[in-house]
Amino acid sequence: MTHELPALTYDFAALExxxxxxxxxxxxxxxxxxxxxxxxxxxxxxxxxxxxSAEDLVRDLKSVPEDIRTAVRNNGGGHVNHxxxxxxxxxxxxxxxxxxxxxxxxxxxxxxxxxxxxxNDGGTxxxxxxxxxxxxxxxxxLEVVSTPNQDNPLTNNQMPIIGNDVWEHAYYLQYQNRRPExxxxxxxxxxxxxVNKRFAAASGDGK
Length: 207
Ligand SMILES: [Fe+2]
What we know:
binds fe (ii) ion, 3 strands
């Protein structure tokens, strides 16, 4: 299987004013595309790995041959992370959480505002490049974690439900060094329907 860059289902400008069209174009067409290309290059001499999904590769990194493990970790992770990222955003989204995830956030964190604060703090404090996540762990327990570079929680047996990209390429052209401002604005584009699908999958009920 050759991994492919998924098309965006909305226009580059659709997330404005929160994320500029210029950022979206570069982020999708250049950054994500490069992760996909480099993942395919890394897998070139291992045909037996070419039928595995990027998620499976990242979930079971230790079974990837050592000479390409770092490349798969970085580029497979980059592919999985960004594929999710485009899906959990959308135009005319944002607002308060809906559905089962709203109740789970209320129960675990005491409310959406408290959850956002924890999540945004995690993103702000991630030193250098990385991601901040809401993950489902064992027994469906929700937790906010952050990871460096393109590491994905799947490698740690955690299911990523929400993830925000805090690499400078995600915000610098619009927010410069004001990462906390980007993190705050990002909630205006979150697609809660899609987040609920991921939460259902993480909870194992297949809804
Ligand atoms: Fe990114």
